[in-house]
Amino acid sequence: MKNVTDSFLSLGHWPSAGSFGFNTDILATNPINLSVVLGVLIFFGKGVLNDLLDNRKQRILSTIRNSEELRRGAIEQLERARTRLQKVEIEADEYRMNGYSEIEREKENLINATCDTLERLENYKNETLHFEQERAINQVRQRVFQQALQGALGTLNSCLNSELHFRTIRANIGILGAMEEITD
Fold first, then answer.
1. Residue 45's closest CA among 56, 53, 33, 34?
2. Is residue 16 part of a domain?
């Protein structure tokens, strides 16, 4: 095993005269290797890198344009909404004022209609009372008259003979007929 390790270590000490080998001097090889790798990357990767950057730039620009269009659209919608809000507020104020006026008119109409109804009811009540009073007075008159007539008839029946009795009844019937025509 020692021979295998020695053979790898000895590769690093061989002179580089005309042959390929490994340079183990880190300070000398890193800047050269890095410059070669960067040169190759820049030469071959320049087009790919430019394409990637251009694509990214185009996407960013289109996103910015889309955002600007969306912003303009949002501003226009906001202005339309503000205009509509102002119109709606004006209409609401008009409705409110018209509503208050309409409420006041309806209130006055209702009060007037109620007063008219109360006045009609009062008149109807007074007419009904007057009618009932007249009816009650007529009933009382009729009863008084009937009682007076019955009393007179009772007195006459006890005092009169039948012929006088018949003449008195006929006269009273004539008087009653005349009174009945007057009260109707």
1. 53
2. no
b/e for 14-44, b at 16 or more Cβ within 10 A? eeeeeeeeeeeeeeeeeeeeeeeeeeeeeee
**Structure confidence by residue, pLDDT tens digits, 81-135:** 999 999 999 998 888 888 788 888 888 999 999 999 999 999 999 999 999 999 9
Total domain count for the chain? 1
Name the pTM for this structure.
0.35
Whether residue 109 lies inside any domain: the answer is yes
CB 12 within 8 A of CB 24: yes
Domain that holds residue 132: 34-142
**Do the domain assignments include residue 158?**
no
Angle formed by the axes of helices 162-183 and 26-159, nearest 10° = 150
Q: Taking the CA atoms of 47, 50, 55 and 56 in sequence, report the sign of the dihedral they define.
A: positive
Distances (CA, A) of 33 to 9, 44, 68, 113, 142: 22, 16, 48, 110, 149
C-alpha 32: how far from its chain's center? Answer: 81
Report if residue 51 sits inside a domain.
Answer: yes
Task: Determine the 3-state secondary structure of 116 from DSSP.
Answer: helix
Q: Rounded to whole angstroms, how far apart are CA atoms 138 and 131? A: 10
Residue reference for tokens 């087009």: 47
